[in-house]
């Protein structure tokens, strides 16, 4: 394998159309069919009669239930008292509501989600934000913090200078405030943990891989903070004072601030104690500034690249992304000193295996 | 489309020294690619190339017997980019450039296409770019290379000297001969500050101030060479000394790429 | 005799047939002054009325004769979504006897677009478009009838567009021009410190990049001084007319 480029011959179904292997493929097809007959068809009816039989995967057009008692949710349709699936995914049954959650789909926003989005359009008193969903989300001028005091009313001059707050292409993190009738989201950034994103790099994974947790912003080892948007948009940045301040209370209560952990994030706190409320008072045009922190060292940039590559590796292996897994994958990636080698397929698979094996080991240990 | 802060961050990382690329690659490092060859049953040769960012391109090679005393133009490329009109500037530019690259005056040796004293094979290369996130010409040239390398042509059974006998060449019913031709490779480098990068990703293209398309054959850089813009943002002039620097980088690493394509 | 002819529309009684003054050949004047130099470049701007800016470039050397007209339309508003920078388009029409392939001219047009993307101060014109047209009126290679070396006309296209842009009052970062040597073209700004475009076609001669760069830079400086000279003169004659 050369260091400059890896070229591999693709192995996949597509290649099988190439003549010689045609016979083989037929045989395999037969085997698959017979598998299907003993396996699926035998099992399915039983599963369907049992309401709560765990994870069930269905394909479009497949009969999910013939029991008319169920209410039909997303991803299903109803014909002659039978409920069929309209997407490929897992069946979810909540009380009397039956829906199929697709394995792969665009992000569908829910109230309270912490998302990362990119401004697509500046409109009348609102921004249209691309959050990777079916529709652009809306961020109203009234749902953002305006410079010069958090409690200020929006004025006409604000409407005229919307592009000086947020313009096309700008990245921001926000919370889904409410949903419209058609399923599109209305966002708000009325907290200092939301707003324009700076000092880092963007990375995107399928939204289904993001595991929702209490907190979507995490300080990682190496002085890097990650914002894991529930919509699969991820922002990696240098840990700011505010990021470390956010973590500080829990650590500060537990032990003395002087006892600094391995993250490096805590040591920043002792330097200057800034509370979030104080930052709010100081919020001004600075919250919409387009300038990065000038002190980002090459080391931090490399660490950010490494995190971005391991997140992509986890996504490549279709592993759900959580803070622990990112940290574990990061540690597993340390054996590769060249960050650039993490884009190779084999390396990504090896990291995925390491993470899963590590979890298994820990599971056994407990 | 990138935000202002992302652009500044990327530009600082890429124009600085040492450079930090967003995926940690070295300046001359390519992203991995996957290639299928010889999968179109109705073509003499074919290849499908998939880059790790999802860019994808299909090339088909077909041949026809022509009288080379009428026209000695034996290679012809046609490019189709999904979602673009055939007369869009990008499609026309890439088509004209690739045809120039495959002109015999540039350096490709077409003597292996000669069948008889009167007739030759003419090669028609059809390129279909299914998706592309940065300048596709380099990917296309890799695909053309592997398609031509997997091309098999019918074996000639009639005599070589047919000037007097006025007959068309005839071919063997089953036997095929592997085409032996060495097309040039094309590389795109992005210029960011005073640094150069091979195989720039979409975000790297967005902060590039200019780009250079370079042709390479047999260990050295040859004409045609062009500057091109890789994205519409922040196009700027650059230091003239960057051109020899880029040529040096390509001459240093192109051999490895050729080998990787050969070892498929 | 004094019966008026009422059936026809007649002009006034004192009408005279129009006569044209003999055409003053400005080109000859210019040529005379620069006769000892091998190349002569004749420039003229603002000759087309219905566009925002235009220019005429005539070039003559012992190898080649080229004449082209550049016209600029814009900046004009573009519809659709917001863009923070002006979009540039270049189109080339061949009216000469030179046999250029249509797709090669398109390639050249997109090359010129790249050159001027870095020269025009595009951020001054958000949500606008600038259209540039080049009409190649005459082009002949005096040495080689067959060889249609498209590279040789690039510097003149660049010169022509630059003048037309200045005539249209569109902001440019610097006066750009380029030089051609053995199939290589370099376009420069900032006294040759920065390259805005590089085009290299295969040439018969054994080429040396360093040498091409040097020759092209010299030619660029020469063309640029002719252009600035012309612009100063033009300014002067305009201010005289106003006074």
Helix and strand topology:
The complex is a heterotrimer of chains A (366), B (264) and C (243).
Chain A: E1 7-9, H1 22-49, E2 57-58, E3 63-65, E4 71-72, E5 76-79, E6 82-85, E7 89-94, E8 97-102, E9 114-123, E10 126-130, E11 137-140, H2 156-160, H3 162-165, E12 171-179, E13 185-188, E14 195-196, E15 200-204, E16 217-220, E17 224-228, E18 233-238, H4 241-254, H5 265-271, H6 276-282, H7 298-316, H8 323-333, H9 345-365
Parallel strand pairs in A: 4-8, 11-13
Antiparallel strand pairs in A: 2-7, 3-6, 5-6, 7-8, 9-10, 9-12, 10-11, 12-13, 12-14, 15-18, 16-17, 17-18
Chain B: H1 4-15, E1 33-37, E2 45-51, E3 56-67, E4 75-81, H2 89-101, E5 119-131, H3 137-149, E6 152-156, E7 171-178, E8 185-192, E9 195-198, H4 202-207, E10 210-217, E11 220-228, H5 242-262
Parallel strand pairs in B: 4-5
Antiparallel strand pairs in B: 1-2, 2-3, 3-5, 6-7, 8-9, 8-10, 10-11
Chain C: H1 26-33, E1 40-45, E2 53-60, E3 64-77, E4 87-94, H2 102-117, E5 128-141, H3 154-168, E6 177-181, E7 184-189, E8 194-200, H4 209-242
Parallel strand pairs in C: 4-5
Antiparallel strand pairs in C: 1-2, 2-3, 3-5, 6-7, 7-8
Based on the model shown, name its key terms.
heterotrimer, A: 366 residues, OB fold (Dihydrolipoamide Acetyltransferase, E2P), five-stranded mixed barrel, four-stranded mixed sheet, C: 243 residues, alpha+beta, Ribosomal Protein S5, domain 2, five-stranded mixed sheet, KH_dom_type_1 (chain A)
Notes on the structure:
Chain C: Belongs to the RNase PH family. Chain C: It is found in: Cytoplasm; Nucleus. The complex is a heterotrimer of chains A (366), B (264) and C (243). With 366 residues, chain A is α+β, with helices and mostly antiparallel strands. Chain A has nine helices and 18 strands. Among the domains of chain A are: 57-102, Beta Barrel (OB fold (Dihydrolipoamide Acetyltransferase, E2P)), CATH 2.40.50; 113-238, Beta Barrel (OB fold (Dihydrolipoamide Acetyltransferase, E2P)), CATH 2.40.50. A five-stranded mixed beta barrel of chain A has the order 9-10-11-13-12. In chain A, β7 (89-94) and β8 (97-102) form a beta hairpin. Chain A is flat, with a radius of gyration of 25 Å. Chain B has two domains: 1-30 and 184-263, GHMP Kinase, N-terminal domain (Ribosomal Protein S5, domain 2), CATH 3.30.230; 32-182, GHMP Kinase, N-terminal domain (Ribosomal Protein S5, domain 2, 2-Layer Sandwich), CATH 3.30.230.70. Chain B has helices at 4-15, 89-101, 137-149, 202-207, 242-262, and strands at 33-37, 45-51, 56-67, 75-81, 119-131, 152-156, 171-178, 185-192, 195-198, 210-217, 220-228. In chain B, strands 1-2-3-5-4 form a five-stranded mixed beta sheet. A four-stranded antiparallel beta sheet of chain B has the order 9-8-10-11. Chain B has a two-stranded antiparallel ribbon with strand order 6-7. The two termini of chain B are 35 Å apart. The model of chain B has no long low-confidence stretch (mean pLDDT 91). Chain C has a single domain, classed as GHMP Kinase, N-terminal domain (Ribosomal Protein S5, domain 2). Helix content of chain C is 30%, strand content 28%. Chain C contains four helices and eight strands, in the order αββββαβαβββα. The interface between A and B is large, with 47 and 46 residues. β1 (7-9) of chain A pairs parallel with β1 (33-37) of chain B.
């Amino acid at each position: 394998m050369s260091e400059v480029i890896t070229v591999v011959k693709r192995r996949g179904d597509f290649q099988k159309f190439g003549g010689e292997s045609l016979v083989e493929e037929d045989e395999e097809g037969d085997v698959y069919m017979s598998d299907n007959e003993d396996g699926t068809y035998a099992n399915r009816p039983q599963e369907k009669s049992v309401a709560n039989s765990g994870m069930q995967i269905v394909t479009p057009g497949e009969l999910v239930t013939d029991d008319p008692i169920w209410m039909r949710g997303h991803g299903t349709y109803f014909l002659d008292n039978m409920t069929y699936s309209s997407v490929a995914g897992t069946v979810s049954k909540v009380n009397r509501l039956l829906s199929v959650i697709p394995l792969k789909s665009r992000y569908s926003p829910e109230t309270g989600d912490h998302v990362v989005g990119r401004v697509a359009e500046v409109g009348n008193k609102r921004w249209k934000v691309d959050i990777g969903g079916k529709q652009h989300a809306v961020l109203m001028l009234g749902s953002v913090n305006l410079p010069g005091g958090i409690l200020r009313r929006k004025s006409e001059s604000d409407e005229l200078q919307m592009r000086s707050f947020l313009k096309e292409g700008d990245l921001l993190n926000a919370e889904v405030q409410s949903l419209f009738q058609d399923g599109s989201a209305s966002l708000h950034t009325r907290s200092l943990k939301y707003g324009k994103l700076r000092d880092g790099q963007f990375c995107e994974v399928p939204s289904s891989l993001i595991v929702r947790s209490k907190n979507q912003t995490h300080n990682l080892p190496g002085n890097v903070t990650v914002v894991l948007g529930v919509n699969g948009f991820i922002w990696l940045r240098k840990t700011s004072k505010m990021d470390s301040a956010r973590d500080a209370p829990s650590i500060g209560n537990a032990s003395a601030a002087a006892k600094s952990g391995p993250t490096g994030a805590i040591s920043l706190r002792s330097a200057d104690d800034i509370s979030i409320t104080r930052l709010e008072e100081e919020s001004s045009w600075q919250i919409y500034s387009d300038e990065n922190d000038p002190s980002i060292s090459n080391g931090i940039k490399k660490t950010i690249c490494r995190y971005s590559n391991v997140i992509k590796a986890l996504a490549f292996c279709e592993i759900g992304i959580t803070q622990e897994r990112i940290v574990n994958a990061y540690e597993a990636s340390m054996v590769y000193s060249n960050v650039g080698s993490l884009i190779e397929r084999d390396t990504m698979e090896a990291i995925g295996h390491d993470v899963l094996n590590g979890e298994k080991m820990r599971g056994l240990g407990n | 489309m990138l935000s202002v802060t992302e652009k500044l961050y990327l530009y600082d990382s890429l124009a600085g020294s040492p450079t930090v690329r967003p995926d940690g690659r070295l300046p001359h490092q390519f992203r991995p690619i996957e290639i299928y060859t010889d999968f179109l049953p109705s073509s003499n040769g074919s290849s499908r190339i998939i880059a790790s960012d999802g860019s994808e391109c299909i090339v088909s090679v077909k041949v026809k017997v022509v009288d080379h005393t009428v026209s000695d133009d034996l290679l012809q490329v046609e490019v189709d980019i999904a979602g673009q009109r055939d007369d869009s500037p990008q499609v026309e530019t890439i088509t004209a450039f690739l045809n120039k690259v495959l002109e015999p005056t540039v350096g490709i040796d077409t003597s292996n296409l000669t069948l008889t004293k009167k007739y030759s094979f003419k090669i028609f290369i059809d390129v279909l770019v299914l998706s592309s996130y940065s300048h596709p010409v380099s990917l296309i040239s890799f695909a053309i290379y592997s398609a031509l390398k997997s091309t098999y042509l019918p074996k000639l059974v009639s005599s070589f000297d047919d000037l007097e006998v006025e007959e068309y060449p005839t071919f063997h019913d089953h036997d095929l001969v592997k085409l032996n031709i060495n097309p040039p490779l094309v590389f795109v480098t992005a210029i960011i500050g005073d640094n150069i990068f091979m195989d720039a990703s979409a975000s790297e293209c967005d902060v590039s101030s200019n780009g250079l398309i370079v042709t390479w054959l047999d260990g050295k850089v040859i004409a045609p060479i062009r500057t091109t813009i890789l994205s519409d943002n922040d196009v700027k002039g650059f230091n003239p000394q960057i051109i020899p620097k880029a040529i040096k980088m390509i001459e240093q690493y192109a051999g490895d790429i050729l080998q990787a394509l050969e070892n498929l | 005799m004094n019966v008026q002819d009422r059936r026809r529309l007649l002009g006034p009684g004192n009408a005279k047939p129009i006569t044209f003054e003999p055409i003053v050949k400005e080109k000859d004047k210019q040529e005379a002054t620069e006769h000892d130099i091998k190349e002569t470049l004749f420039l003229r701007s603002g000759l087309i009325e219905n566009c925002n800016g235009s220019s005429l470039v005539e070039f003559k050397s012992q190898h080649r004769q080229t004449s082209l007209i550049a016209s600029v339309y814009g900046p004009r508003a573009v519809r659709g979504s917001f863009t923070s920078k002006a979009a540039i388009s270049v189109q080339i029409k061949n009216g000469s006897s030179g046999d250029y392939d249509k797709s090669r001219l398109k390639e050249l047009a997109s090359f010129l677009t790249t050159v001027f993307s870095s020269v025009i101060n595009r951020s001054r014109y958000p949500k606008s478009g600038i259209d540039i047209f080049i009409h190649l009126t005459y082009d002949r290679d005096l040495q080689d009838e067959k060889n249609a070396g498209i590279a040789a006309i690039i510097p003149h296209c660049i010169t022509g567009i630059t003048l037309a842009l200045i005539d249209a009052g569109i902001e440019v970062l610097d006066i750009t021009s380029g030089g051609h040597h053995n199939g290589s073209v370099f376009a420069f700004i900032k006294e040759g410190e920065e390259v805005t475009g590089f085009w290299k076609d295969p040439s018969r001669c054994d080429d040396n990049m360093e040498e091409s760069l040097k020759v092209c830079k010299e030619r660029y400086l020469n063309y640029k001084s002719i252009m600035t000279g012309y612009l100063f003169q033009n300014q002067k004659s305009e201010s005289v007319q106003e006074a």
